[in-house]
Amino acid sequence: MVSVLNNHNSQEAHHPNEAYRTALDQFRRAAAYVRLPEDVKEYLRYPRREFTVNFPIRRDTGEIEVFTGYRVHHNTALGPTKGGIRYASNVTLDEVRALAMWMTWKCALVNIPYGGAKGAVVVDPRQLSLSELERITRRFASELIPIISPHSDIPAPDMGTNSQVMAWFMDTYSMTLGYSVPGIVTGKPILLGGSEGRTEATGRGVIISMIEAMKYLGWDNRHDAKIVIQGFGNVGSHAAQYAHELGFRVVGVSDVSGGIYKENGLNIPAIIKHVQKNGSLARYTDGQNLSNEELLVLPCDVLIPAALEGQITEHNAEQIKAELVVEGANGPTTPEGDAILRERGITLIPDILANAGGVIVSYFEWVQDLQAFSWDKEEVFRQLQRMMVKAFDYTTTISEKHQVDMRTGAQIAAITRVGDAIVQRGFFP
Ligand code: NAD
Fold first, then answer.
1. Where are the domains of the chain?
2. Which residues on adjacent β-strands are paired with residue 239?
3. Range in 44-58, 213-227, 332-346, 349-363 the model is least confident about
């Protein structure tokens, strides 16, 4: 048996990783404005439950390898926990803690009845065959059964996972119980109880918040705005597609293989086709090639980081040319990067608002599954638009009231809702 516990990050016990440090710093800033007992604030700094599993999987070679997975429930005051499952080779428990905490704030901000969770398996899915991916998913789903259900914790896709992974997850849970339970996960294929519009929802929501921000800032010639998007996966590609459909000029996009820039606007449908065919942006030629570092500081009006954490930092925030940053990814800006953008007067629409479209439509999917009744796409998008705009307006109201930036305003709004729920529920026993 090849025994490689492939997760271990021994530094983690000593200091939090970048994402968790960012999440705690943001919480500290916002919590200072929230009127709640100090002990409730202290409680909110910690995840309620953390579950780590190590499980053996037979590789296609016949060897057995041990994989590590996590599921963290940050808070359950407003309802069952909700959050994606990430497959990545460098993911740590601390990163999952940060992502679970952000899910709590995101669900509270957009006012859906969920607490926050996140899960991960330490694995690079690109190094797995399809059958290895299926075995890992099924075994991980089975390991999570003690802590998930449609009424307690509902996973979804995140980086490195997709609707096929969710289909295996739902099937494993259903086979164990002996009947189909579509409400156990969201982001499923539509045939299995997935929702119309879920795949596009996060990217679409990012563009809805970008437009609301442009209106809020009083931008007159909005359609002249130049947009740059980092990351061309689920969030980035659908944001690019929707922006393109609405007539915006997307001048730069990138993925892990690098970026492409064209001052007059890229041909987004052609890029989507290229990525579908080739698996990445590499070798796309209609534009100027550049690195991800160069992409982030391109001349543009709107920058949408939609790939991964920690991209806007003290090293590049000074050089960013955009006047508006809309966070498609979770945690793409470090506290130092954030401070520089604030000082420079750059408006930032925070992740917990800008990328909430995904969890909003996941909520619609869960509601449809529980009622065994499906909505059409127009209805999904109409309700998505309504809830995104409402959350945007609520964030600006709270930010103006406290005279703070939008991130702090969004977090104040969310922490207040969760804290009030904890106080109203009281303390068991
Ligand atoms: P994905 O796996 O579909 O796509 C990730 C993209 O980022 C890919 O294009 C990949 O090539 C690119 N990328 C990876 N490493 C990179 C690097 N070093 N530099 C530049 N690009 C890189 O993932 P996704 O679902 O689009 O998620 C992206 C982000 O959005 C994550 O932070 C995720 O947590 C967040 N998010 C996703 C959803 C959702 O519904 N999918 C919802 C909310 C937030």
1. 31-196, 199-354
2. none
3. 213-227
Q: Which residues line ligand 1 (CB under 6 A)?
A: 157-160, 202, 230-236, 254-256, 292, 306-308, 328-330, 355, 358
Atom number in ligand 1 closest to CA 355:
43
Counting from 1 in the atom list of ligand 1, the atom nearest the Cα of 307 is 7
List all residues 6 or more positions away from 58 whose beta carbon is below 8 Å from its beta carbon.
Answer: 64, 135
Quote the tokens at residue 347. Answer: 């408006």
% of the chain with per-residue pLDDT over 90: 94
Write down the pLDDT at residue 222.
82
Ligand 1: centre distance to CA 177 (Å) = 33
- Name the residue at shortest CA distance from atom 4 of ligand 1: 233
CATH topology of domain 31-196: Rossmann fold (3.40.50)
Q: Ligand 1, residues 235, 349, 363, 388: which to mutate, most atoms within 8 A of Cβ? A: 235
Q: Where are the alpha helices (DSSP H) in 193-334?
A: 198-217, 234-245, 268-278, 292-296
User: What residues contact residue 280 under an 8 Å CB cut-off, 6+ apart?
Assistant: 255, 256, 257
Give the residue whose CA is nearest to atom 42 of ligand 1: 358
User: Among the options 118, 215, 262, 377, which is catalytic?
Assistant: 118
> What is the reported pLDDT for 16?
72
- 325 alpha carbon – ligand 1 mean position (Å): 16
Average pLDDT rounded to a whole number, residues 417-422: 98
User: Do 310 and 212 meet the contact criterion of CB atoms below 8 Å apart?
Assistant: no
Looking at residue 81, its pLDDT comes to 98
Rg (the chain; Cα; Å): 21
Atom of ligand 1 nearest to the CA of 330: 32
CATH number of 199-354: 3.40.50.720
Residue 8 clears pLDDT 60, i.e. is over it:
no
The reply to whether 199-354 shares the fold of 31-196 is yes
Tell me the one-letter amino acid at 52: T
Q: What is the DSSP letter of 331?
A: S
Task: Provide the 10 A C-beta neighbour count for residue 88.
Answer: 18
| Residue 15 pLDDT > 70 | no
Distances (CA, A) of 162 to 85, 133, 429: 9, 11, 40
- CA distances for 341 relative to 154, 160, 241, 413, 420, angstroms: 35, 30, 27, 21, 31
Residue 118: active-site member: yes
